[in-house]
Amino acid sequence: ASASELVISGVGPYMTRSVTFGARTFGKPVGQWGLKYCNDSMVLFLVTFRTVNSEGFADYYDGIPADCAADDDWDHLLGDPAETRLKAALDYIETGGSLCSPPAVMATMSLSAGIGFRRPSGISGVGLAGKLLNAQ
Description:
Strand 2 and strand 3 form a beta hairpin. The radius of gyration is 18 Å and the shape is elongated. It is built from 4 helices and 4 strands.
């Protein structure tokens, strides 16, 4: 979660426009260091820094809203043009976003709705990992 947010935040000052697809991110503009204790038998990971882009932006603790909402697609491999989020991105490039709500509207909806990760129904625990590992 924090890696994608770091990329979105980091490229922001250098791009005239970027568009995000999917759902609101988790909001983790911080990092951790592991500190050993109890004779090095245990490690405690403490939040010790926050990431800031070149304009000083770092306050996305509530996540970064998606410009174009697109659900997780557990039935297609990543990179498959039929996969929901890639399909939305390709459509955005070709048509300007006929599969999306307008970006400003979607950002507002994301803020109020608290859109985030949703586990697909009927899949949990080992079943989810197995489905991801055995995707054809």
